[in-house]
Design brief:
The complex is a heterodimer of chains A (about 110) and B (about 120).
Chain A (H helix, E strand, L loop, with lengths): L8 E4 L5 E6 L12 E5 L6 E4 L13 E6 L2 E6 L8 E8 L7 E3 L3 E5 L1
Parallel strand pairs in A: 1-9
Antiparallel strand pairs in A: 2-6, 3-4, 3-7, 5-6, 7-8, 7-9
Chain B lengths: L4 E2 L3 E4 L4 E6 L2 H6 L1 E7 L5 E8 L4 E4 L8 E5 L4 E6 L8 E8 L8 E2 L3 E6 L1
Parallel strand pairs in B: 2-11
Antiparallel strand pairs in B: 1-3, 3-8, 4-5, 4-9, 5-6, 7-8, 9-10, 9-11
């Protein structure tokens, strides 16, 4: 059972905005660890989408944005496109796990 | 760009040992930490552990410490994940990935190695 909780699924029509929450606690996100986000397309390896809370790697569209507040973080996708249909995971670290990394439970984004 | 090339799929029986690999360039090997991530069938990602190949400093998820061993061979710029006695529950896709620090993000990923363990 992950210490970072995400909604199992979110959906939206093309062009809409969807957000995915990542809820942690005072031992992980709340203690200052960065939050990162990954996109996993069906049958593929995960891909880094957002790092250090809100930064986008080169090549990631600016439709994807990240934020963090307190013990939670969020990923927003604006102008939803069919190719955004994938699983999304947040990731951070946790002091109660000796500083080891943790992934969120994962969210399936469906484009209607 | 960092490239991580993993070994091929494995089919094993419960109780057998296994060592899978993740090969990278000499530069990456001496600069980055390499981690392993497990994804059981139909499930989410799980952070297993990481190693700094330069000095073999390794860190494990508490839930997996003692269950697997992460090692590195500098002569062939390769990182390994090994089991001494596989269980059916070890059936999963295993990814290696690179990070610049032990509490950082994974910026490059291998293609994955599917391990299937039967009883």
């Amino acid at each position: 059972q992950s210490v970072l909780t995400q909604p199992p699924s979110v959906s939206g029509a093309p062009g809409q905005r969807v957000t995915i929450s990542c809820t942690g606690s005072s031992s992980n996100i709340g203690t200052g660890y960065y939050v990162h986000w990954y996109q996993q397309l069906p049958g593929a390896a995960p891909k880094l989408l957002i790092y250090d809370n809100y930064n986008r790697p080169s090549g990631v569209p600016d439709r994807f944005s990240g934020s963090k507040s307190g013990t939670s973080a969020s990923l927003a996708i604006t102008g939803l496109q069919a190719e955004d249909e994938a699983d999304y995971y947040c990731q951070s670290h946790d002091d109660r796990l000796s500083g080891s990394g943790v992934f969120g439970t994962g969210t399936k984004v469906t484009v209607l | 760009e960092v490239q991580l090339v993993q070994s091929g799929a494995e089919v094993k029986e419960s109780g057998e040992s296994l060592k899978i690999s993740c090969k990278t360039s000499r530069h990456t090997f001496s600069t980055y930490w390499i981690g392993w991530v497990r994804q059981m069938p139909g499930k989410g990602l799980e952070w297993m552990g990481i190693i700094y190949p330069g000095d073999s400093d390794s860190r494990y998820s508490p839930s997996l410490r003692g269950q697997v061993t992460i090692s590195a061979d500098r002569s062939i710029s390769t990182v390994f994940l090994q089991w001494s006695s596989l269980k059916v529950s070890d059936t999963a896709m295993y990814y290696c990935a690179s990070t610049t620090e032990p509490r950082g993000f994974f910026d490059y990923w291998g293609q994955g190695t599917l391990v299937t363990v039967s009883s």
